[in-house]
Every structure is written in structure tokens, then in C-alpha cells.
Design brief:
The protein has one domain: ABC transporter involved in vitamin B12 uptake, BtuC (Orthogonal Bundle), CATH 1.10.3470.10. The longest helix has 28 residues, at 84-111. The chain has 274 residues and is an all-alpha fold. The chain is built from 14 helices and no strands.
Length: 274
Amino acid sequence: MQQMLALDFMRNAFLTGGCIALAAGLVGYFVVLRNQVFTADALGHVAFTGSLGGLLAGLNLLVGVFGSCIAVALAIGTLGGRGRGRDVAIGTVFAWVLGLGVLFLSLYVTARSAATGSVGVSVLFGSILGLQPFQVVVGSIVAIATCIVTLLIARPLLFLSVDPDVALARGVPAQVLTALFLVLLAVTVAESVQAVGALLIFGLMVTPAAIAQNLSARPWLGMALSALIALAAVWAGLVLSFYFSYPTSFFITSLAFVAYLASLAGRRMVRSLA
């Protein structure tokens, strides 16, 4: 461990990855609770396209990722509802967005003779061991701020997610709260891309939350479990990738998946014994 932590890039990965994991676990709990898993997936594809579009325009990669995710998240919020019509609209849009990302990648490589497709691969599958100092600072600060805001709105958001009709009758500002949550989701997806990539975003946002809900029906305990499980998956994945020369995102998502299977088996066992 001392040898591993003596390396700057490993310390950066543990710090930034830990902060991102906590934010992903907290926000991911509400993603699963509100049945907005498909929205998170769509924003992952948007992150891919937005990052490449930003690079093509000469902007920093993070500017493109965060800007595109927040803009599309707010646009999704205007669709309203949770029904089939909204899912069809989201699916249609994000399929086009992914194709647009491929076009941006081709144009970026063509416009810059020294550029390669590696930037697209890093966005799709994550590059947590290659974070630059600017990314470390931004990722850590944004993740901590996301955690704080999520905890501040957690109570009314839980109320709105579990019983929206009663929440509206009690005066909960549903539109404002929904828009704020979508912004938090977009920011979390954008920063999580650095850890696991756009295609593997489920492993960090959805799987820990699903495990937590298998383990406990109590919302506050579930939120804490979701954040801790995501943190454990990221840190354990970093340790394994240091000793075994395989991608960190593979270990993170694999550990989360194995934990999900274990929680599912444990839940069924408890039910069978009850």
C-alpha cells in the first residue's frame, strides 16, 4: 500500500474517485427510486458526444461534458412524466446523440493529424489513472458540492419520489425540485465519466443503489449504503488495477456486479426463510 500511495497518479485517483463515488452513490439512490435509470444512461451517451464536441470546438473536455449533460438534462425535464412516451423520446434522442459523437470523433481525428481515437476510448471507458491536476481539483470539488446539495434536498425529494400526489398537495415545489435533481444527475454523470466512462456509468450510479435497496428499505440507511458501496467498489478497483494490469473500470463494475448478485441472493434467502 505504501508503494502504491507513493505514486501521485494513484493518490489523485483515490481522492477524486472517492469523491465521485460518494456523489454517484447518493444521486444514484434517487435515480433507482424514481425509475430514471434510462435517463442516466442517456446522459452517459450525451457525455461522450459533448466531450468530443467541446474538443472539436477547442474547449476543455470538462466544459463540453458538463455543459452538454446539464443542457440535455434540463431538456429531458421538459418532457415530464415517467411513462412510455418519455422513454421513447429519450431513446430516440440519445441514439442520435451517440451517432453524432462518432461523427465528432471522426472530425476531431481528421482535423488534428496528431490526434488519435484514444480520447474517445478514454471517455467511453474512463481514465481515472490518467487524471490531470485540473481534473482532480474540479472533479473533487464538484463531487463534494453535489453530495452537499443532494443531502440538503434529500427529504423533500424523497417525499416527492415516494408519493408525488401528496407531496404536491403539501406544497412541495415539484418542478423546481425535479429540475434541480436532473442538474445533479447530469453533473454526477459528467464527473463519473472520468472514473468508469460513459458506457459503464451504470456500474457506479445504478448498481450500488440497487444493492442498497436490496439490503434496506429505510431511505436514509439506503442512501448511506449506496454511497459506501460505490466508494468501496472504486477503491477496491483501484487496488486491483494496481496489482493486476487490467482496466480500473473493469474491476469497479465487476465488483459492483458481484456485490449485486450477492445482495439479490441474500434477499431471496431471507424471503424464503421468512
